[in-house]
Amino acid sequence: MISHFGIRRREFVLGTVAAAASGAALTPSSAKDLGTPASGTSLPKDLQWKADDALLVHSANTIETKRSHAGRSPITPLEELFVRNNVSPPPPSVVADPDSWSISIEGVKEPAVLTVAELKQIDIESVACVLQCSGNGRKFFDHNPNGTAWTVGAAGCILWTGIPVRSLIQKLGGVASGCQFMTGTGGEPIPEGLDPNTVVVERSVPVDAMEIALLAWEANGKALPLAHGGPLRLVIPGYFGVNNIKYIKKLAFSDVESQARIQANSYRVTPLGGKGSTEFPSMWQMPIKSWIRDPIETTKSGPVQIQGVMFGGEGGASSVEISIDGGASWKPAKLVGPDLGPYAWRNFSFSVDLPPGKHVLASRATDSKGNSQPEHMTPNDRGYAHNGWRAHAITITAT
Q1: How far apart (Å, rounded) are the C-alpha atoms in residues 111 and 169?
Q2: Cis ω on the peptide bond leading into residue 295 (within 30° of 0)?
Q3: Closest alpha carbon to 282 in 182, 376, 377, 196
Q4: How are beta strands 181-186 and 155-164 bridged, if at all?
Q5: Domain count of the chain?
Q6: Domain for residue 248, yes or no?
Q7: Does residue 190 fall inside a structural domain?
Q8: 206 CB contacts (<8 Å, ≥6 apart)?
Q9: pLDDT tens digits, residue range 284-293?
C-alpha cells in the first residue's frame, strides 16, 4: 500500500517549524474563539433535526460542532455531526427510495451500473472512522485564510456500513490494467451554462485506497441522511472528508487524476500567496491530531478530569500526553472507552489537581508509527490540516 504520508516527508508542508520560520506566533485558544460565529444564524429548515445546542452555524452549508461536544463520545451522534457542502445537495427526494439510487462503476474489467439494493446483495462491512473537513482548525492560522473559520468542530467519528469497494471490484473482475487512481463523482446537480469541471465534486485518490474504502448507505445504524451524503457515500478511512464523496454516482479507475477544479486546483497544500495546482500535494491522508474538550473556559480548582480526543496518523493514534503549563512539561493521559480501530478516534482523560489561577492546557498525540503532533504548523494558503498542538491548546481559569 502506498504510504500517502510519504508525501508529508517530501513535500506535504504540514510539519513543525520554528515560530520565526512560520512567520506567525500561534497562541492557545481562548473563550472568544469558542463562541457563536458572527453570522449568528440558526439551523436551516431542512436541518431542524440537528441538535441546535451542540452546533455553531456559519452558513446553511457550513455547520460546526461546538468544542464542548466535539469528541464527547467514541461515536458522534448524527444530530451533532458537522455539515460541510462544497455545492448545494440534490433534492430531498433522492433519499425517499435509497435502494433505487444507482452508481456507475468504470475502469474495471466488467463495468456495471448497480443500484444500492444490488450492492447490498454482494457484501457488507462496517467501519468506525473519523470524518474531518480539510479546513478543520483553519481559525488557528494567523494569516486569516479564506474559507470557514473552523476551530475543532469540523470532525466527527461515525460508524459507517456499506459494501467494501474491494469486494465490489473483485465481483466485477478487478481493476483494469494500468490504473493508478480511484475517482469518485458526486451526484449534486450542476447548473446549466457552467463548465462541469468548475463545480463538479469529483476527487481522485491512489488506487490502493480501494482496499479500505466503503460505499456506505448507513451511518450509526441509520439510513444515510441527505445532509451527510445519502443515499450513498464513498467513505475512505483515514482520508480528509473532501475525498469521501457524497451522493456518489460514479466510481472510476484510471491512469490519471480527475481534471475537475476541486482536484486539480482546490484542496492542494499551496504556499502562502500561491495558486493551487497539481504541482502541490493533494489533501489525502489526515495527520495525527488531538484536542482538549473539557474544561475549556473555567473550572473549580482542585481535582479535575481533563478530557479530549485524538485520531489520525499512520496506523491510528496510540498515545497522548497532557500539559497544564503550556508545554513546559508533559505527562501521559489515560485512554478511555473502546478501541474501535485505527481509523476511529480515542477519548482520553487526565487526572490533575489544579491550583487557582490561569492554566494553559495542551494535548500532544502520537500515532503507532511514532509521528507526533508538531508544536507549530507551517502555514499554507487555504488553511488546511492544522494539527499544531500549541494553537489547539486552551487557556482556562481555575477558581
Answers
A1: 9
A2: yes
A3: 182
A4: unpaired
A5: 2
A6: yes
A7: yes
A8: 2, 4, 180, 181, 182, 284
A9: 999 999 999 9
Residue linked to cell 492557545: 28
The residues pairing with 105 across neighbouring beta strands, listed in sequence order, are 112, 251
What's the mean pLDDT when you consider all of the chain?
91
CA distance readout (Å), 202 to 55, 106, 188, 257: 28, 14, 10, 10
Return phi, psi of residue 179, to 5°: -75, 130
Indicate if the pLDDT at residue 46 is higher than 80.
yes
Q: Residue 363: is it exposed, middle or buried by C-beta count within 10 angstroms (0-12/13-18/19+)?
A: buried
Residues with Cβ within 8 Å of residue 212, at least 6 apart in sequence: 127, 236, 237, 238, 343
* Of 292, 336, 285, 332, nearest in space to 312 by CA: 285
CATH assignment at residue 299:
2.60.40.650
Shared domain for 218 and 345, answered yes or no, is no
Q: Is 67 a member of any domain?
A: no
Same domain, 253 and 367: no
Q: Which residues, other chains included, contact 261 with Cβ-Cβ below 8 Å and sequence gap of 6+? A: 197, 198, 199
* Residue 381's pLDDT band (cuts 50, 70, 90): very high
pTM: 0.91
Q: Which three cell numbers stand for residue 104?
A: 456507475
Which pLDDT score is estimated for 313? 84
8 A C-beta contact, residue 348 and residue 309: yes
User: Please, are residues 197 and 261 in contact by the beta-carbon 8 Å criterion?
Assistant: yes
For 214-262, give the secondary structure using H, E and C.
EEEEEECCEECCHHHCCCCEEECCCECHHHCCCCEEEEEEECCCCCCHH
The grid cell for 85 is 457542502
Are the beta carbons of 111 and 250 closer than 8 angstroms? Answer: no
Query: Alpha-carbon distance 389 to 28, whole Å?
Result: 9
Whether 156 and 296 share a structural domain: no
Do 176 and 227 sit in the same domain of this protein? yes
Helix (H, G, I), strand (E, B) or coil at 23: coil
